[in-house]
Amino acid sequence: MSDWASADIEDQTGRKFVVTGANSGLGAQTAKALVRAGAEVILACRNTAKADVVAAELGSKATVAQLDLADLKSVRAFADAFDGADVLVNNAGLMAVPLSRTADGFEMQIGTNHLGHFALTGLVLPKIADRVVTLSSGAHQIGRIDLGDLNWEKRRYKRWQAYGDSKMANLVFGKELAARLSASGSPVKSLIAHPGYAATELQGRTETFSDRLARLGNKLPIAQSAADGALPTLYAATVPDVKSGEFFGPKKYFGLQGPPGRSRYNKKADDVAFRDGLWSLSEKLTGVTFEI
Fold first, then answer.
1. How far apart are CA 146 and CA 173, in angstroms?
2. Is 163 a catalytic residue?
3. Contact in structure between 40 and 215 (CB atoms under 8 Å)
């Protein structure tokens, strides 16, 4: 695992991947590395025009599919048309955006980052042969999920707290999915990854002064490229002997950059009662139950 890089990805010829949010940033870099390794990749994106540009660069092994994770009708439409893949990469996300709501009334960050991916995974899981990889973030450490107000309908909205909550939800979901798959005897794995500090289009969407700081931070040595930020995802998605439930991120500078390795995490994600509570609430809100 030490110094693992995209050049170390084993031949992926004959394997198919779905990468959400693959029109830019980490998702685009993930798709590019997978295609270079021989895989077929479905770019599942809300902005299909941007995804078409990426797909054109990648050639015949890349296809584009419409998927808006902030709209459960779109999620169901994608799942209905989906004919199967080896790996699902739940990559798409928003960070620290102003308060807004999804088409189904969810707070935009928990709705897109977690509930959209929860629904997508539940609907397509019977057609996934190998594994699911869900992207979290180091910001999960500040997650304080309130199961009584998941969608910020009672509390004063705090955009960074809402982001941390959504990333904690991604980690909790990945961990609980791994436990449930294992208990059911399924061979499918669930892995979680985070990119550290990667300079992408994710930054600069808060519409506050912190956008200026983010743009400055992206130019500092502490920030790694989107291609390097994608390495933990690629490791989790392609290395054969990873164990279900493992969490990968950069190994250097307190998890901000460097080659991928196992990552530390907030142990709240190991609280079985909390995981069950979030899972049950997610099923109730999305109307999606898992066949495991």
1. 15
2. yes
3. no
DSSP structure class, residue 10: P
Q: How far apart are CA 285 and CA 292, in angstroms?
A: 19
CB 198 within 8 A of CB 228: yes
Q: Of these residues, 157, 163, 253, 265, which one is catalytic?
A: 163
pLDDT in tens, 129-167: 999 999 999 999 999 999 999 999 999 999 999 999 999
| pLDDT tens-place string over residues 236-273 | 999 999 999 999 999 986 678 899 999 999 999 999 99
The pair phi, psi for residue 131, each rounded to 5°, is -160, 165
pTM for the full predicted model: 0.93
Q: Nearest-CA neighbor of 27 among 216, 242, 163, 201? A: 201
Q: Structural domains in the chain?
A: 6-281 (3.40.50.720)
